[in-house]
Design brief:
6 helices, two-stranded antiparallel sheet, about 30% helix, alpha/beta
């Protein structure tokens, strides 16, 4: 009998595309070989098209009302600043949904999605990272411990947080390992040929202000 795994990705208008689609691709390959059966739920507040920050349109598979009540992994993507501010404004169906999923086996965010997790209180007491430009925004959430430097991802207990956008790919492989095993993650690395070697090189500098205002 295949091991069943359910991953929920709560999405919203203005979400970062790669925060959703990159990890979705990685997670989907857990279905091969068939020893694992993965259900990836794209979850939105209501039915209808979702438009990403850069204008890509896709459809959620579930709503907050129909999503699995206890997920194996909650994956919170980042998004453009107006979208983050909208979803963090109280009362917030999005934040309420995150709180209800607080007993997921693994609670994850990538990029600015950490701001949404932090607003829900689900990062309290945990070490976390986010997009380098948003690290100063953690000052709004004094119970969150901020990772130093610019790590691709940070695992703190069952909290897994990632840096900016493309970091979600590395983080997704780590989540695959946590949900299955190292060998499964290796197999997906080979299938997707994920051996990054970018043709450019640059350095990040610490941000001094929070883009959220």
């Amino acid at each position: 009998m295949a091991t069943a795994i359910t991953i929920g990705i709560p999405v919203y208008q203005g979400v970062d595309l790669l925060d959703v689609t990159g990890p979705h691709e990685i997670f989907g390959w857990m279905n091969d070989p068939p020893e694992v059966s993965v259900d990836i739920q794209l979850i939105a507040a209501s039915p209808g098209d979702i438009k990403s920050r850069d204008g890509f349109v896709f459809k959620p598979t579930h709503t907050f009302a129909t999503a699995t009540t206890k997920l194996d992994a909650l994956w919170v993507p980042g998004g453009e600043v107006p979208a983050l501010l909208r979803e963090m404004k109280q009362p917030s169906p999005y934040i309420d949904f995150l709180k209800k999923q607080g007993d997921a086996r693994f609670i994850c965010s990538v990029c600015e999605g950490a701001m949404l997790l932090a607003a829900s209180g689900l990062l309290d007491g945990h070490l976390a990272t986010t997009h380098y430009a948003f690290v100063p925004c953690f000052s709004r959430f004094p119970k969150v411990k901020v990772a130093q430097g610019f790590p691709r991802f940070v695992l703190s207990g069952n909290r897994l947080t990632g840096g900016g956008i493309s970091s979600g790919l590395d983080e997704a492989f780590k989540l695959v390992e946590l949900l299955t095993d190292y060998e499964t993650a290796q197999g997906i690395q080979q299938t997707t040929q994920y051996y990054p070697c970018p043709p450019v090189a640059s350095e990040l500098k610490p941000a001094t202000s929070c883009p959220l205002g």
